[in-house]
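Help needed: design a sequence for this.
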């Protein structure tokens, strides 16, 4: 990965591009969920007939949205950090604590990525679909979640390295 000039800047390069693209996809997905909800509510109010399968579409779009923001949030260090116990420590020592917790976050998200990738494969192989009016296949949404967790894990590893080297 190409290092940015300022150590506090988020890393650029392929990982940054993928994280931004996933966040954009998450934003578009959230807009789709909001639009479907709005149209469905208006239709229900005016014609008593909502969009068929609106709950299925909104639940999948909302899940994709949440997953899309994880990697970018980690890359921008916009995740929740609790530093109540480390604010009094020297910056370098606090950075080592942050490196440790970023490693924990990376391990967790990379493990979830592997599990979700396996789940996406099994969902596709079994032909599983949503339970509802549309019976949509959803292996692709699980695969997007796996990719999002993988990007999040890589971003966390990148920051863990920076924290450990004191470049934050």
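Sure. Designed sequence:
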């Amino acid at each position: 990965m190409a290092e940015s000039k300022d150590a506090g800047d988020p890393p650029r390069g392929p990982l940054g591009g993928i994280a931004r693209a996933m966040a954009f996809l998450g934003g578009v997905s959230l807009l789709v969920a909001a639009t479907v909800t709005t149209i469905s509510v208006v239709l229900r109010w005016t014609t008593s007939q909502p969009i068929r399968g609106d709950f299925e579409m909104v639940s999948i779009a909302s899940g994709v949205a949440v997953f899309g923001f994880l990697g970018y949030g980690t890359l921008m260090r916009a995740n929740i950090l609790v530093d109540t116990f480390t604010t009094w420590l020297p910056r370098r020592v606090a950075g080592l604590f942050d490196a440790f917790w970023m490693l924990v976050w990376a391990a967790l998200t990379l493990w979830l990525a592997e599990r979700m990738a396996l789940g996406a494969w099994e969902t596709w192989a079994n032909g599983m679909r949503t339970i509802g009016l549309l019976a949509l296949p959803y292996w692709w949404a699980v695969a997007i979640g796996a990719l999002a967790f993988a990007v999040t894990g890589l971003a966390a590893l990148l920051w863990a390295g920076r924290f450990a080297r004191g470049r934050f």
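The longest helix spans residues 91-126.
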